[in-house]
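Ticket #4471: structure export looks truncated?
Reporter: QA, pipeline team
Priority: medium

Steps to reproduce: submit the single chain below to the structure queue and open the exported record.
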Amino acid sequence: IDSFIDASGKKQIRTHKSPMGGTMRLGGYDCDVKKGSLLGKIYGEQKTIRERHRHRYEANPKYRADFEKHGLIVCGESDGLIEAVELKNHPFFLGVQFHPEFTSRLVRPNPAILGFIEASIKNAR
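Actual output as written to the record:
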């Protein structure tokens, strides 16, 4: 048995018999960006970004305090759900729940992908 907080903040209980389709997050969701974060920097300091999802998994907010105590910064949130994390003092560590490849185009790459490429070039040895 697993408990899950859905996008509306309601608790769901899941077991091996629970229907999987109802737990899918699919489509565009707003993400509030932490000011001064790496996520904010690569998205031009926007307060809110909108990105596409296609998954059924979430970072359990129950562990947020422990994550942050050990250097993981929650830098993006959507209605209380953890959308993005980064590491303190790292040239580019960004983990996101959304799929930046869904909105990336050859002449207009998604900021998360472009930021990773730029950091890779900058930090190449």
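Status: closed, not a bug. The export was complete when the record was re-opened. Leaving a note from the reviewer for reference: The radius of gyration is 16 Å.
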